[in-house]
Amino acid sequence: MGSGVSREDPALADVLKAALGMGGMAMCLVLVFRGMRAVMDVGGACADGGPYVSAQSCPEGAPVALMAGIFGLLLFGAISMVYAGRLGGLWGAAPLLAWTGLFGSLGWNFLDYGLFNPPLEADGIVWGWIIPGVIFEVMAFGPLLLVIPFIGSSRPTPVRRRGAAKTTQASQVVPEPSPAAEFREGTQALLDRLERLGDMRDHGLLTVEEFETAKAAVVAELEERA
Amino acid sequence: MTVPRSVVTVVMVAAAILGAIAGWQLYGVLGGG
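Predict the joint structure of the above. Result:
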């Protein structure tokens, strides 16, 4: 019964590695979130080094935090996708929540600075930040809202963990036999009947003529099925 | 050694929370406010 949809309890090593991936992604999300806010505090753009002198230097720590956060997300995302996938069930899709976490948090930054706490030099709300904020939030929660209705139906029902069948409805556990399975079972039953007839003849319970008559009936039925 | 699925949920949520706290602290270590 071991298959890709197995509901057996996962191995400890896989759980720990998946947790490392999930925790690492959360760490990187916070780094990007805070780095972005620091840059927005100084107007939304900054630069350091190179042949030109930027009018706005970057806040301390922000460039490293943003770079580490972005590339760390890729690294920890790969780790969590591999090992959470081995856990099966809904946990296989859990790392995709980082998409919602990333665009949801960055979108909030845009909305916060554009709508609720605009820079002092801005005259009222900043549409240049509100628009990307709305787009980010749609990107974050749109796919999630589309997927949620299918979460319950995506669970594999025929294969269940040990002992779970006792508490589940019979209609969920017993799969409906396919036409091919029904054909195999019917043919096997006829072959069994033929074997029993042979035994009865061997034990003197049937004469040769009676056996031949019964055998012809079974064979005819077998040919009919074929 | 296997882990019950209910424990997996606790481990994952705890990992995400600890990761977020670690990220917040790490930003301070990197020099950010």
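The mean pLDDT of chain B is 91.
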